[in-house]
Amino acid sequence: MARANLPFFISVIANISRSARRSYFCSMRKLSMEELNRLTVADFKNTQKFPLSLVLDNVRSLHNVGAAFRTADAFAVEKIWLCGITGRPPQREITKTALGSTESVAWEYVPTTLEAVQQLKAAGYTVVAVEQTTGSVPLPAFQPAPGVAYALVMGNEVFGVDDDVLALCDAAVEIPQFGTKHSLNVSVAAGVVLWDFISKITQAH
């Protein structure tokens, strides 16, 4: 929500009667497992995926790798490419964080990110770095093209996307931030970007 809209939003909430708010929130309940309609691993593997892949460029944290798997499962991503020093299943910390999604999400290990990006470009993917660069497009302004498959490159926790990899990318997007750090955890950033891309893809249909 834009900052300019916050005062209006707060004023609307304040004007809702206390009894109406109590009635609304008291009527809510958590959905049961059955109501969530969770797919089995077999069903997930057979379901249509969004035209998106994640490329993890030398991501050192096994927690981040596991979280990326879990996010990729949530958003029906085609594949995760694990590159360089990025850990790969089966490893205890990945498995613990992924909550079983290493079994549902397709993945491949490639010794270098350059090799993965070259393969993806040869296969017709548009490769987009999630990175702060002089040419980055703010994420809200980036519009995925219809019928185009995208590979999103997530960089190392300290050094970001490798410069040689960046040179091969077709574009770069940046998540607007308003705090003191201008830095997000790599798995958090992956979730933000995937949600944004998928929201735009589904709205276009």
From TrEMBL:
Q: Which CDD domains match?
A: SpoU-like
Q: Which GO terms describe its biological process?
A: methylation; RNA processing
Q: Does the keyword Amino-acid biosynthesis apply?
A: no
Write down the InterPro entries for this protein, in alphabetical order: Alpha/beta_knot_MTases (IPR029028), rRNA_MeTrfase_TrmH (IPR004441), SpoU_MeTrfase (IPR001537), tRNA_m1G_MTases_N (IPR029026)
Looking at the record, the residues that make up the tRNA/rRNA methyltransferase SpoU type domain are 52-195
Q: Which SUPFAM superfamilies does this one have? A: alpha/beta knot
* Entry's Gene Ontology molecular function annotations: RNA binding; RNA methyltransferase activity
Q: What's in the keyword line of the UniProt record?
A: Methyltransferase, Transferase
Task: Give a Pfam family name.
Answer: SpoU_methylase
- Annotated GO CC locations: cytosol
Q: Would you say which domain of life the source belongs to?
A: Bacteria
Is Heme among this UniProt entry's keywords? no
State the Gene3D superfamilies in the record: 3.40.1280.10
**PANTHER family to which the protein is assigned, alphabetical:** 23S RRNA (GUANOSINE-2'-O-)-METHYLTRANSFERASE RLMB (PTHR46429)
Q: What is this protein called?
A: SpoU rRNA Methylase family protein
Question: Which organism is this protein's natural source?
Answer: Hymenobacter gelipurpurascens
